[in-house]
UniProtKB/TrEMBL annotation:
It is a multi-pass membrane protein. It is found in: Cell membrane. The chain crosses the membrane at residues 12-32, 44-63, 84-106, 118-136, 180-199, 220-239, 259-279, 300-319, 331-354, 366-389, 395-414, 426-447, 453-475. This is Flippase.
Length: 499
């Protein structure tokens, strides 16, 4: 119970900042979209997808590895400094190679073939790659140390600088270049601050001394397999965007990316859990505490499913109001792909914490096999459906691939030795969703004014869904009390709770 309470507190220390960064994204995205316009926003979306995919062999070789191994307590002398020493050297080498290759490729004229202006963009991407590498290393190191209370605010700082500097430069006439410069400035400053925090935690003399011995084979094996895993996962996020840009055009890409961004807002809590559970579950795996893993995964899976189903119902009900209000009337065409994406986004949301727990085991081959099936399905369906149905085909294909992740990761989890769905209560969650969904949709139809609906429907939905979930047994009353007791509520409120 003590371990669960500590995990919950660490979760809250990451959730608050994540909510703030999401609010920043919610507020800034329509501003960026309107300033750039559909075509330039489509180019910006493609650049972010190219960056994310390109960074996989560069960044995935260090991020999860340093987070996992820093969290493990080994008998090796100066273990923390040795882990950081190894990953710092690898990070520097890969950052130099990655930036250099991108500069050479751009000089050879490859960027020009992508589209007008992409030569400038790719030169900036080279700088983005370098600073992004050290931002990733330092932020994941903070998680490995258990410094969630530091990592969270730094995430807010990074997001605030990105949109603040970026929007200012876009408004000044720099367009996509301005947004890229915003990313570079934000990543560089975040890396410097996080690095300063880490240096206060370690011995510099040990960091720069020669190690006696290290499990290099274990490090390299995990890093190599993790690159493959991250490549497969990231392909789910970006292959569809790139294929829409190639097969349909820049404006359609802007509309499609807008739909994706809205659908991904339901991942707020699962993303926080995923970031927390990698190093937290590594400790349980290293101590062979399989029963605790199953209990932890089972409860997290059920809670996550309840939350994201509620969010998806609300967003789906209000989609035809939200999309044009949020992005502007020209983006109303993004409503259909958003509705098509939501079912799969729910499945992927529930799967994300399971991916982190499976990674914590260090046994990545089973996980790679599972994610590989979803990635292949994603590419195949997008290739088949985009030429026929455009961005709606991409949304359908991606939704199916997203949804398959839940089924595949449950299979992987069982192969690794724990069952995340033993206490899922799927029938009760489904009945709760059906009954609450009818009330939420009915409430929305009774209200004509868009802004009034946006204020009333979420409140009615939350209250109805919560009451039905407790009444139907999707969540127990004592579980609700337990969660409320752990929240940072005023003493007078917690004093009223049973027990």
């Amino acid at each position: 119970m003590k371990g669960t309470t500590q995990l919950f507190r660490r979760f809250l220390s990451l959730l608050g900042p994540k909510l703030i960064t999401t609010i920043l994204a919610v507020v800034s995205t329509p501003v960026i979209v309107r300033l750039l316009g559909p075509a330039s926003y489509g180019d910006y979306a493609v650049l972010l997808s190219v960056y994310s995919l390109y960074m996989i062999p560069i960044s995935a070789a260090i991020t999860e590895g340093v987070q996992k191994f820093l969290a493990e307590e080994r008998d090796t002398e100066a273990w923390i400094e040795r882990v950081l020493q190894f990953y710092l050297g690898v990070a520097l080498l890969l950052a130099l190679v990655g930036s250099g290759v991108l500069l050479v490729v751009t000089d050879l004229g490859v960027a020009e073939r992508v589209g007008e202006g992409f030569t400038r963009y790719f030169y900036l991407l080279a700088g983005f790659v370098f600073v992004g590498q050290f931002r990733a290393l330092s932020m994941h190191s903070l998680l490995g140390f258990g410094f969630e209370q530091v990592k969270g605010p730094l995430g807010v700082l990074k997001k605030g600088l990105t949109v603040g500097v970026g929007i200012g430069l876009v408004a000044g006439g720099l367009g996509v270049v301005g947004m890229l410069l915003g990313h570079i400035v934000a990543n560089a400053l975040t890396a410097i601050i996080a690095g300063a925090v880490i240096l206060r935690r370690i011995s510099l003399r040990e960091l720069f001394s020669l190690p006696d011995s290290l499990p290099y084979r274990e490090f390299l094996s995990f890093n190599g397999l993790n690159i493959v895993l991250v490549l497969l996962v990231m392909s789910l996020f970006h292959v569809d965007v790139i294929m829409v840009r190639t097969l349909v055009g820049d404006e359609a890409t802007g509309y499609y990316k807008a739909a994706l961004s809205l659908a991904e807002y339901i991942w707020i809590v699962p993303i926080v859990l995923q970031g927390l559970l990698l190093h937290s579950s590594s400790t349980l795996w290293s101590e062979n505490r399989y029963d605790e893993l199953s209990a932890l995964a089972g409860r997290i899976t059920r809670y996550t499913a309840l939350l994201v189903v509620l969010m998806a119902i609300g967003l789906g009900t209000l989609a035809d109001r939200v999309v044009p209000l949020y992005y502007g009337e020209p983006f109303a065409v993004a409503t259909t792909p958003l509705l098509l994406l939501l079912p799969g986004a729910v499945g992927f949301a529930v799967a994300r914490p399971l991916q982190a727990i499976c990674q914590g085991s260090g046994q990545l081959r089973v996980l790679i096999a599972a994610v590989g099936v979803a990635a292949a399905l994603n590419v195949g369906l997008n290739a088949a459906l985009i030429p026929l149905f455009g961005m709606n085909g991409a949304a359908t294909a991606t939704s199916v691939a997203y949804g398959s992740m839940f089924v595949l990761l449950v299979w992987a989890s069982r192969r690794l030795g724990y069952d995340p769905v033993a206490d899922l209560r799927a029938a009760r969650i489904g009945l709760t969703a059906a009954l609450a969904g009818g009330i939420i949709v009915g409430t929305s139809r009774l209200i004509d004014a868009d802004f009034l609906a946006l204020g009333v429907v979420p409140v009615v939905g939350l209250g109805t869904f919560s009451l039905l979930a407790i009444t139907l047994g999707a969540v127990d009353t004592d579980e609700v009390v337990e969660i409320l007791a752990k929240l940072p509520l005023p003493t007078r409120v917690t004093a009223l709770l049973p027990g």
